[in-house]
Specification:
By secondary structure, this protein is an all-beta fold. Helix content is 0%, strand content 54%.
């Protein structure tokens, strides 16, 4: 995967910074607040039904209830902490963070594994049309297929969960950063049929393909009718203004890096209502891929 592009888009109500950069150092301090909630934020354009944070040392449940799944779709907008699971036999427990549907409700789940704990953050929006999901785990052979869903006029896809056994650390010198990414790609059917564009969920793991699956994750896709979108990313150690506008929402398409640090170490999107910006915070060389939708 190519990184290091330096670009800047300027759009009505929406600005994205896309670059690799270095910025402020971040203190490794624990987060003691287990949950944060902002409900009923309705503005022109997209409607945000809630923003949430969840995760404490030793947290293995109960998972945080985010509300009904028939009126909203929830996405993962922050991953911080130590995604260290058991990478040797018996390969459990797994560390994870993400949102999922159960019994007609969205839930936010964090699992510590054998690490010091992980924090997850989620944003829910009032979009549900044509919702589909994708799931990927590390391929344990040298011939892998990645899940995808066809592109339509309004569909966009964002990550909803990530799990790991080895903390997403580099396994061999020269490996690319491990992580997950949703991107648009052209599919060429093996039978020679017409090609078409699709949203593809891909993962990069730094473990040996002969070992048990080291990491995986999920993404959900939903329609965004009548709005616009702009994509960007940032790699490094900084807090960067990504999306501007009261009705603009920033969501994560991808997360990459070594997740073996403390509670302030990770990739996080935060809406700053005072400025109207959505800020992306990345630490210790991690990368966040963001779409601004409105």
């Amino acid at each position: 995967m190519t990184r290091g592009t330096n670009l800047l888009w300027t759009l009505p109500l929406t600005l994205l910074a896309v670059a690799c950069g270095e910025g402020m150092e971040v203190a490794q301090t624990p987060e003691n607040t287990p949950a944060m909630e902002e409900l009923g934020e309705a503005k022109q354009g997209l409607v945000v039904t809630g923003r949430w944070g969840w995760g404490t040392p030793g947290n293995s449940g109960p998972d945080l209830d985010l509300g009904p799944s028939n009126t909203q779709t929830c996405f993962l907008t922050g991953v911080r902490g130590n995604l260290k699971g058991q990478s040797a036999y018996p390969y459990n427990p797994i560390s994870s963070v993400g949102v999922y549907e159960e019994g007609g409700r969205w839930k936010l789940k964090t699992r510590d594994g054998i690490g010091t704990g992980v924090v997850g953050e989620a944003t829910c929006i009032a979009n549900t049309a044509n919702r589909v999901s994708m799931s990927w785990s590390e391929c344990t052979s040298f011939s892998c297929a990645f899940p995808y869903v066809p592109v339509n006029t309004n569909r966009r896809c964002f990550i909803t969960s990530i799990w790991s056994r080895a903390g997403m650390t580099f396994h061999y010198q020269g490996d690319s950063k491990p992580g997950l990414l949703v991107s648009k790609q052209t599919i060429f059917p093996p039978n020679g049929g017409a090609s078409y564009d699709a949203w593809v969920l891909k993962g990069w793991s730094s473990d040996d393909a002969s070992e048990p699956a080291n990491m995986g994750g999920t993404a959900h896709c939903v329609d965004f009718p009548g709005g616009g979108v702009a994509d960007g990313s940032w790699e490094g150690n900084a807090t960067v203004q990504m999306c501007n506008g009261a009705s603009t929402v920033g969501l994560l398409r991808g997360v990459f890096g070594d997740f073996t640090g403390g509670y302030e170490d990770g990739v996080t999107l935060t809406k700053n209502d005072a400025t109207g910006w959505t800020d992306l915070k990345v630490t210790n060389g991690k990368t966040g891929y963001v779409s601004c939708v409105w």
